[in-house]
Amino acid sequence: MLSLLILAAALQPQVIxxxxxxxxxxxxxxxxxxxxxxxxxxxxxxxxxxTGGRHGQGALMLSGxxxxxxxxxxxxxxxxxxxxxxxxxxxxxxxxxITEESVHVVARLRWIPSSGGHAGRPEYASRVAxxxxxxxxxxxxxxxxxxAGAAVIExxxxxxxxxxxxxxxxxxxxxxxxxxxxxxxxxxxxxPQKPAGSEQSVRAFxxxxxxxxxxxxxxxxxxxxxxxxxxxxxxxxxQSIPGAATEALGLIARKKRSYLIAGIYEREGxxxxxxxxxxxxxxxxxGRYRKVYLPREEVEGGLTPGDDYPVFQTDFGKVGxxxxxxxxxxxxxxxxxxxxxxxxxxxxxxxxxxxGVARAAENHVFLAxxxxxxxxxxxxxxxxxLSTATTQxxxxxxxxDLNRRYADDWLGEMxxxxxxxxxxxxxxxxx
Length: 431
Fold this sequence. Notes:
Structural class: alpha+beta
CATH class of the largest domain: Alpha Beta
Largest sheet: 7 strands, antiparallel
CATH superfamily of the largest domain: Carbon-nitrogen hydrolase
Shape: elongated
């Protein structure tokens, strides 16, 4: 029993620093916070609102003060960092008069070396873990560099002359090293030979999956498996969801105890969509994505575009879907990654492979494609090919770790940084 209690205690986060009451002047001996900027002329206005905060116990305030160049914030040094240990930084903020929060509101953890040189790169708390009214809670889990001896918590604000932000409930805690989060992905390379119709085509895909995939957490099939090789029109093969195709796919998903994604044509009233469906391990439809970017051939064929980029929670992580022509444009993969997708499944007919690599690398996600004249492969968050299937009836299979960090020695861990630095506040429209 004692050993179990010791183990349980070891698995609990250990608070290194925590503050939810702000009463003292920040630069006093009891305050410990300093207002910092790269140059005095761009320092934002900073003060303590003693009656503010989430629970009326004070908050650290920052304001642009009509200065569009203002950028800086509150900083506090925390000692006792253990090299190689994992830490979680959380901070709550309330924005006011801000156009784009991810650009103007920045929480970072900066490492201080125990000796000379530098220790790692700053880590950005770019993920909004929860919302409570006007308050948001930022969070990031990161390992301390091997030569780190201290950390600086940075609560920044800037480039918003009319805006301001309140910071509250700041915590830094040591957490257990995250366990591996292994996911086995299988993408099928298959194209049936002149099936008589949708039913025969789907059956051929099901049989191919049965032969090629022994075990997987996620199975990805190509685009339009209800039409390929049939010579039919979109309208002739379109069906409801759930329907005959998803019922047949559900049987193989249940047999393999796998999530499964496949492209079919969906009818809803007068509209026909190029859709990717997600089935769970029990063979039930738990998600669908309607292709947003339609090439002119599909528009001329009477298809209707989708209007959302949904992300779905599975028992192993968050999954998003793109279909073929979506890869031609930056925003589908970006939207999915912003919504938390860790894996993007891409049923595809054909396209430019360089764009698939770019979408994986720029958004720092795994990308699993299944295509006809496009490679059937699995890419890692750096755009490197982990597995590929070059022969008919084969599957590209790779076991990935969703908890693995892909950090660059110079740039740092880019997923958090990338989504902070995206400039959504700059208009994109030409007219």
